[in-house]
Amino acid sequence: MLETLEALLHGFSIALTWQNLLWALAGVTLGTMVGILPGIGPALTVALLLPVTFNLDPIASFIMFAGIYYGGMYGGSTTSILLNTPGESASIITAIEGNQMARRGRGAAALATAAIGSFVAGTIATVALTFVAPVMVRVGLAFGPADYFALMVLAFTTVTAVLGSSLARGLTSLLFGIGLGMVGIDLQSGQARYTLGSLELLDGINVITVAVGLFAVGETFYVASRLRRGKQDVEAIKGSIWMNRQEWARSWRPWIRGALLGFPLGSLPAGGAEIPTFLSYTIEKRLSKRPEEFGKGAIEGVAGPEAANNSAAAGVLVPLLTLGIPTSATAAIMLAAFQQFGLQPGPLLFQRAPDLVWGLIASLYVGNAMLLVLNLPLVGMWVRLLTIPRPLLYAGILVFATLGVYSLSNSIVDLITLYAIGAVGFLMRRFGFPVAPAVIGMILGPLAEQQFRRALAISQGDYTVFFTRPLSLTLMVVAALALLVPIALDMRAKRKGRTVEVDD
After folding, report:
1. Any idea what DSSP says for residue 324?
2. Would the pLDDT of 25 be above 80?
3. Does residue 399 lie within any of the structural domains?
4. What would the mean pLDDT of 138-149 be, rounded to a whole number?
5. Which of 77, 291, 329, 351 is deepest in the core (most CB within 10 A)?
6. Which residue has the higher pLDDT, 191 or 183?
7. Which domain holds residue 361?
């Protein structure tokens, strides 16, 4: 514990330099902005900035990326409350009660409980991250190639099962990403794979190109196709920006419960912030002394999910930093950023780049405090962002994405690949296929293949190595359950539906 505190203090000495403070401020400001704007989340923003930060100091880059990630969680609540349109997926549940509060003239109180709850939960979760991460590092050092492969299979199945409207769509997206990751030269045999005879593809498809194509170009095409489908009105902010005594009394317990719920669930390989927010909402509804207010503007339905949202955001960083496993779209893009700088997250990252890791963790404390200041007094300024014409906004994103990808290698092939993948991203959104599994599949696919081959080489071709080690066997069983349980539940639901029809 003493070593952890010393490492954290060293991290603060890095994070509190004036240069890194400026990068943190830039990150949280930009994150809040993109969280507020509908359809533009932290994953898209980090993907757009990857080409720009290529020559930047890695520590400064990740401090900014972490600020964008945290800021997106804060900003998403503003859009949910005032526009009834979540700025990012984890704020979906906030829209239920938050928008109703805004309609009843308590939008300011809803924004206040979301901001303060995010600060409280974010701080608690960051403290937990500080002390849990070193423990997970020691666990990760015990992993062999077979265990790592089983862990990646678990990440594939759980993320696929959780994200998206159906398991089949999630698996399709995952396999598409894995296929993209296989393009290029096979490092073991030296043979070219799926290059279509193009010399430019021998090095594989750049992760940045895929991320920008799926998130930025695909999102732009999708927004353009739906641009004229109705107009959304922004609810005016009425009343005091501060909460009254009753609202404080009804909020502090949901903040604590949301923080304690979000971090452990976010830390799991099947993490992410969506599940904790829904669970928090359900718990608060059951524990509330005023359950009849839910659906009509209950402040607990804003306080709890927003706290769980921000707590889970810190939890997502645990498997990313200690095991190299991303469990959300933004974490996947951050993993790509690590690879861009020649770093591989995992247990050895804490030994090879301690300044980066602890500087990043310390910056989370700083960024969280900055976000509280930015979101409470300046909420009126942020709301004005919602008046920006969407055609101008997304046209700028498209230009920025094109220039960023072209600047990587000045290759026309990269631009063709960018827009081809962007077209696929548009179709995925159009037909309800989740995008995150594709990015996770592309990044983790080659790593899973590498660990798979390494395990077989050590075991001299014995495939039972994945089922004879206790850890890998456990992970494989959990992965199988994550894949089969949703199928079983779906079949059961369909069977019940047919039974009801027959009875009628």
Report:
1. -
2. yes
3. no
4. 84
5. 77
6. 183
7. 2-225+247-384+409-503
